[in-house]
């Protein structure tokens, strides 16, 4: 499906598919897909060797759309890969590089890490992780599109500029484009950005607002299908 993403018209579809598919890869890496619910999921958090102690199960259940059992399974997978209870950006990049060994995923991983690091403290805790996953897996269409917009809005000023989208597109191209499609021209990222703005920038003011982004995405059948890929994953 990632290979097919490049054949879909519009950078917005490529980017959203990558958010969905790379998050799916992350969950598989953490052992959260094809998991066995019989492996003592009733156990509570084992916190004796963890530096960062997550909030209580009941509180996390109230703040997310996961059940207690789902949170226990998520925590077990997170703790197995991040024994300290948090992951910093360099470790996140190392984990993420295993998903795309054919390219350089460091910049895209940086952008994705920033989206998960909601407290902007340089680390992603279990709470950060499940809050993000709750939106991606269980959020409404608007919730998921808001999350994707926040990923693209690099300076968090409420709008996406061509410069920001070019940075995103170059990171995607570095991660998979130049290696999967070696015949692509060097100006391909900029061409995708122009296509993105032609479709999304409704009032032609040179920036894409959250309202324009959501309205355009909802009219795109490919994006709406990608939004449903995570339904009932766990």
Integer-rounded radius of gyration: 18 Å
**Could you tell me the strand content as a percent range?**
5-15%
Q: What does the main sheet amount to?
A: 2 strands, antiparallel
Strand arrangement, major sheet: 1-2
The shape, in one word, is globular
What is the N-to-C succession of helices and strands? HHHHEHHEHHEHHEHH
| Terminal residue distance | 20 Å
Subcellular location: Cell membrane
Main location: membrane
Domain EF-hand: 104-139, 140-175, 188-223
Keywords: Calcium, Cell membrane, Ion channel, Ion transport, Membrane, Metal-binding, Potassium, Potassium channel, Potassium transport, Repeat, Transport, Voltage-gated channel
Short key terms for the protein model shown above:
about 230 residues, mainly alpha, two-stranded antiparallel ribbon, two-stranded antiparallel sheet, globular
Describe the protein's architecture and organization.
Its main location: membrane. Residues 104-139, 140-175, 188-223 form the EF-hand domain. Keywords: Calcium, Cell membrane, Ion channel, Ion transport, Membrane, Metal-binding, Potassium, Potassium channel, Potassium transport, Repeat, Transport, Voltage-gated channel. Belongs to the recoverin family. The chain is mainly alpha-helical. It contains twelve helices and four strands; from the N terminus they run ααααβααβααβααβαα. The chain has a two-stranded antiparallel ribbon with strand order 1-2. Helix 6 (106-116) packs across helix 9 (162-180), helix 8 (141-152) packs across helix 11 (210-218) and helix 9 (162-180) packs across helix 10 (188-200). The longest helix has 19 residues, at 11-29. The two termini are 20 Å apart. The model is unreliable at 1-15 and 28-50 (pLDDT under 50).
